[in-house]
Amino acid sequence: MKDAALRIESGTIAFAGTDEEFVRAYGEAPAAGETVLDGRGKTAVPGFVDAHTHLPWAGYRESEFNERLKGATYAALAAAGGGIVSTVAATRRASEEELAGNVRARLDRMLLHGTTCCEAKTGYGLEKAAEVKQLRAIFRGAEGHPVAVAATALPGHEVPPERRGSAGAKRRYLDEIAGEILPALAAGGARFVDVFCETGVFDLAESREILLAGRALGLVPRLHADELTPLGGASLAAELGAASADHLLFVSDEGIEALARAGVVATLLPGTSVFLRMNRYAPARKLVSAGVPVAVATDCNPGSSYTESLPAVAFFAAVGMGLTAEETLTAMTLNGAASLGEAATRGSLESGKRGDAVLLDAPSLEHLVYHYGVNPVTDVVAGGRLAVRDGRRV
Ligand SMILES: [Zn+2]
Q1: What does the pLDDT read at residue 212?
Q2: CA atoms of 305 and 316, how far apart (whole Å)
Q3: How many A from CA of 124 to the centre of ligand 1?
Q4: What is the C-alpha to C-alpha distance for residues 83 and 147, in angstroms, rounded to an integer?
Q5: What is the SS3 string spanning the chain?
Q6: How many angstroms does the Cα of residue 158 sit away from the middle of ligand 1?
């Protein structure tokens, strides 16, 4: 829409329409106490929704990234103590305060890049105390922050290093997840339960067990599915009525049909494909054609996608997966909100929805995927609060 106007009152969108209609309803001059953002030459879009992140972690893996560029394999790096195990060790060592500070710094960067709502997972603790510490760090880091955060319990991110090597040890970890860790995370305020359903990690039966245990506690299932091998995670997501099936690089045609039938959102993470140099993306066009709602998220984490920027990922969604500018915007707003159960309240600029809006320094929406490698966001309103003005935190 050209010559558009938007009005936010008490945290809620009160008007979205043309400038002419706006002036007819509210007059030319702002009333006392009202803030006006001049959008001339700019494009207004909904606040971005980042539906897949691993925010509460400590330590970085930049050397591992560089070693991979030099040709090292993941297996060699893991044998040298790298990989997810190094992040688990650093996160277990970190204090709750340190993790909360990391969460807050990452939320700050997300906000500057237009994100007003995100999901954040545990999953680097892999034992009760450390998982609970991560969850508390999510809420402590997000307290009073303009970005709204939904927390996900992910003790099924990996088999902890001390539980590997025997079926009995893994069995005891599964029992601990269901009997101790998930109840603690549900009581602590997590909304979702997630699992890394993958060959060599948690198979279909183990993933089902973890997700059902979470569901029995009131947590909504979502899962890392068909990322590295075609294991059938998408069908499991459909079977359990999951909110979202994520990654999906190896999803089968039957898996796509199952997602469409069950109305599960496919949350795609094209930044991870690039970061890991996989030469492969999720079949976004096939998913769209099948009628699966497609969301796009950052997967912000230290090992396979270190970015807080959804606009950066938007470029990969378009160029790598072939989503159009309009599809990409929907994927990083309304469909992301749908995967978090927030489609009725967030993700579009409509009367009655939360006042989450972003101004892009761009004459049209296409610039979101066309002008890459820059931050196009100049202003952010989150829940009716002006949070970023002219590229700076307010
Ligand atoms: Zn992930």
Answers
A1: 98
A2: 12
A3: 11
A4: 29
A5: CCCEEEEEECCEEEEEEEHHHHHHHHCCCCCCCCCCCCCCCCEEEECEEECCECCCCCCCCHHHHHHHHCCCCHHHHHHCCCCHHHHHHHHHHCCHHHHHHHHHHHHHHHHHCCEEEEEEECCCCCCHHHHHHHHHHHHHHHCCCCCEEEEEEEEECCCCHHHCCCHHHHHHHHHHHHHHHHHHHHHCCCCEEEEEECCCCECHHHHHHHHHHHHHCCCEEEEEECCCCCCCHHHHHHHCCCCEEEECCCCCHHHHHHHHHHCCEEEECHHHHHHCCCCCCCCHHHHHHCCCCEEECCCEECCCECCCCHHHHHHHHHHHHCCCHHHHHHHCCHHHHHHCCCCCCCCCCCCCCECCEEEECCCCCCHHHHCCCCCCEEEEEECCEEEEECCEEC
A6: 11
Distance (angstroms) between ligand 1 centre and the Cα of 169 equals 24
Quote the pLDDT of residue 140. Answer: 98
What separation in Å is there between the alpha carbon of 52 and the centre of ligand 1?
A: 6
70: CA distance to ligand 1 center in Å? Answer: 25
Residue among 289, 247, 319, 307 at smallest CA distance from 109: 307
Q: How far is the CA of 45 from the centre of ligand 1 (A)?
A: 26
Question: pLDDT tens-digit profile of 214-231?
Answer: 999 999 999 999 999 999
Give the residue ranges of the chain where pLDDT is below 70: none
What is the model's pLDDT at position 29? 87
Q: Could you give the dihedral angle defined by the CA atoms of residues 76, 79, 81 and 84, in that order, rounded to the nearest 10 degrees?
A: 80
Cα(303) to centroid of ligand 1, in Å? 10
Q: How far is the CA of 393 from the centre of ligand 1 (A)?
A: 28
